[in-house]
Amino acid sequence: MSRIIKTESNLRDRNRLSRWIVFAIRTLMMQPEASDESKDLVAFIIICLQEIDHSIEASVVAWEKRGYWVKADRFRMQWQWAGKSATELQSSLEEEDWGKIVIQMVQLGQRFSTVKLPNRMKESPPWENAYQRLNMGKN
Prior knowledge:
The chain has one domain (10-116, 126-133). Helices cover 71% and strands 0% of the residues. The chain contains six helices and no strands. The chain has helices spanning 10-29, 36-65, 69-79, 81-95, 98-111, 130-138. Helix 2 (36-65) runs antiparallel to helix 3 (69-79), helix 2 (36-65) runs antiparallel to helix 4 and helix 4 (81-95) packs antiparallel against helix 5 (98-111). It is globular.
């Protein structure tokens, strides 16, 4: 077997995930009421935040190997909210507390306020069945 080589950097992954989060938040906020698609959207945002959180540690490993401890710690502090937000959002989704979810979406929207969406996003929404994937990951 040959090695699997990751061709995208963690920065590129975070940028892509950030765009998807912003797109999902916009789609969620346009819905008149909570539905199965709303659960999928929130679950998709949680999954993206978890992936961002995991990419942070992978990013700082290279800096720590070179002795850039301060830079690594600053970067961790800059992104520490991602894992915490994912956990809080997941507990709100489990409780189906949509009032709290809306507040958390506004806070996330502020975090990602500098993210620019392209004119055209991928045709098929990536959040289809995200609620099931999130629940399968807990087991």
